[in-house]
């Protein structure tokens, strides 16, 4: 939410889960909680503080995910890092689990996109994370993406270097790469906009567009034509805008 300069102070997801738990959440109510940031992009903000995780109860969260499929062609859930599934706690349905939202989202997904940073620590975490994924319920369809690929972090010919390392240590033969483009990402962050809006020609944006097109089964050019400039929603003013009263 902050990266897109959204001003929603309440946790949209927590509110939707609460409504689902009360039996009052429907398609219209869920759509009202989503903030529109582009013609075909809406955001349901996550919890505003880490200590609010008990509010994301598994059963009502499943309802939120099911309704989300009814209002969007593609639903993307950014899950937490913890994948440990405690068998003792899983048998105790009343015991809250800090990573319950992550496990529910993974179990409900049609496709899993695993993202890693293109540097030694990030790649090591990727290898360990892939091992942990084998112990929890996840969709069989999976795409591994290495983000911010750059020579300065992994040496000459970074694509070949990273691909060889992941094949050796994780058995991966198919990996997608997103090149580093700090200037474009900084510009997007500064103005609270997407790459498509402020840096449409960025190599990173084009790589992400290709990935999205692949997941949706359409060409990247089709996706680019569907992106427009208009936007709605509560946002903070960009550095070059004056607040409106």
Care to describe what's here?
There is one protein chain. This protein is mostly helical. It has a domain at 1-108. The protein is 45% helix and 10% strand. Strands 3-4-5 form a three-stranded parallel β-sheet, sandwiched between helices. A two-stranded antiparallel ribbon has the order 1-2. A hairpin with a 2-residue loop joins strand 1 (35-38) and strand 2 (41-43). Helix 1 (12-22) crosses helix 3, helix 3 (58-71) crosses helix 5 (100-108) and helix 6 runs parallel beside helix 8. Residues 225-245 have low confidence and may be disordered.
Give the helix tally. 12
Which percent bin holds the helix content?
Answer: 40-55%
Q: Return Rg in Å.
A: 19 Å
Number of strands: 5
Which secondary-structure class do the elements indicate?
mainly alpha
Main sheet properties: 3 strands, parallel
Low-confidence stretches: 225-245
SSE layout and pairing:
Elements: H1 12-22, H2 27-33, E1 35-38, E2 41-43, H3 58-71, H4 87-91, H5 100-108, E3 112-117, H6 120-133, E4 142-149, H7 151-154, H8 158-170, E5 176-179, H9 182-191, H10 195-198, H11 203-216, H12 220-225
Parallel strand pairs: 3-4, 4-5
Antiparallel strand pairs: 1-2
Helix pairs in contact: 1-3, 3-5, 6-8
């Amino acid at each position: 939410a902050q990266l897109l300069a959204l001003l929603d102070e309440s946790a949209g997801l927590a509110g939707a889960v609460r409504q689902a738990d009360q039996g009052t959440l429907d398609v219209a109510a869920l759509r009202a909680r989503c903030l529109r940031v582009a013609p075909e992009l809406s955001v349901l903000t996550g919890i505003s503080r880490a200590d609010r995780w008990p509010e994301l109860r598994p059963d009502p969260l499943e309802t939120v995910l099911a309704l989300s499929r009814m209002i969007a062609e593609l639903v993307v859930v950014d899950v937490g890092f913890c994948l440990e599934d405690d068998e003792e706690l899983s048998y105790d349905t009343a015991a809250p689990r800090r990573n319950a939202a992550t496990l529910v989202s993974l179990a409900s997904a049609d496709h899993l996109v695993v993202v890693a940073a293109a540097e030694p620590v990030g790649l090591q975490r990727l290898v360990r994370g892939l091992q942990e994924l084998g112990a929890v319920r996840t969709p069989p369809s999976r795409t591994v993406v290495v983000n911010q690929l750059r020579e300065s972090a992994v040496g000459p010919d970074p694509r070949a270097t990273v691909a060889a390392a992941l094949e050796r240590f994780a058995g991966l033969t198919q990996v997608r790469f997103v090149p580093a483009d700090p200037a474009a990402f900084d510009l997007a962050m500064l103005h609270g906009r997407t790459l498509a809006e402020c840096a449409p020609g960025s190599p990173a944006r084009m790589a992400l567009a290709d990935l999205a097109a692949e997941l949706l089964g359409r060409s990247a050019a089709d996706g680019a034509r569907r992106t427009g400039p208009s936007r709605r929603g509560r946002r903070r003013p960009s550095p070059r805008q004056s607040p409106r009263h």
